[in-house]
Write a structure and sequence with these properties.
The structure is a homodimer.
Chain A: H1 4-23, H2 43-55, H3 57-60, H4 70-77, H5 89-109, H6 112-115, H7 124-129, H8 135-153
Chain lengths: ~160, ~160
């Protein structure tokens, strides 16, 4: 059992996943090598970045290991173009789909008490002082992060 | 009384307000006449758009009338540059601050039951079928909207 509010946040997460998926199924693979704005990240980097950041929810929410730990260096630690060999758009899209399925399974199974419990990056001691630093907060943050980069990815749309 | 989850969503909203405020207190007023990317919206338009969209929460959440109804045509209905005379950055920043104060006051006072009640754009009949179309959902959507445009506004930052 969990409060309805948690279900609403999970719905919001699902909505963002779908919106990002829509962007990355709209054009040919080559198109995602475009920068979202001159001198800014390429779309392919942002997809890798979103996979890598959402993948980190698995350990942060105590749900297991990252599925694709090799992405962390390429798409979080390093900026775009710093690493020469990166996975293809096709591979990243597969990872994105698979990760969303795995996370959705966990999210459906997590109890309300678990969502309101501490995430693994905050100590038991700090959590006593700041009880909002819970698993739900991690999810709220990741939804915001997806929205943030979606606002950039929308610039791939050719100008009217 | 309200569930802790609602408090967390309100905190997330406050965090976005602060992050947007930080962007609009960083540069001289003139700087916000820059487009966030070539051919895209100017920053001043996005600030007006954020005020106008958040202002609509007042009627949607049944908290009263919009404070600045005149912004709706300029910054929602019409695209950037369609209206010749628009409020100054200074005025829009005042509106932004005032609106956030008014909304924060209401948000603190709203009960948990009110947050989970229908918003004014959904009929009683439709709400019975889709009970997640509540006031909290409006707030979650607006937080996402702020993040989305913040991802664009960050492109004002000069390139390294």
């Amino acid at each position: 059992m969990k409060d309805q509010e948690i279900t609403q946040v999970i719905r919001s997460w699902e909505g963002q996943n779908k919106a990002i998926t829509d962007i990355f199924t709209k054009y040919d693979d080559d198109y995602y090598f475009n920068e979202v704005a001159p001198g800014r990240n390429r779309a392919i980097y942002l997809l890798g970045h979103l996979v890598a950041m959402n993948d980190l929810m698995l350990p942060m929410l105590d749900l297991g290991e990252q599925l694709y730990p090799e992405l962390e260096n390429i798409f979080i630690t390093q900026p775009d173009r710093a690493v020469g060999e990166i996975p293809s758009i096709g591979t990243l899209k597969e990872y994105w789909t698979k990760l969303n399925e795995v996370l959705a399974g966990h999210f459906g199974a997590l109890s309300g008490a678990a969502w309101l419990g501490r995430h693994t990056r905050v100590s038991e001691e700090d959590f006593q002082k700041e009880t909002l630093r819970n698993k739900l907060n991690v999810l709220i943050g990741r939804i915001g992060h997806m929205n943030y980069h979606r606002g950039q990815l929308i610039f791939l749309t050719p100008k009217a």
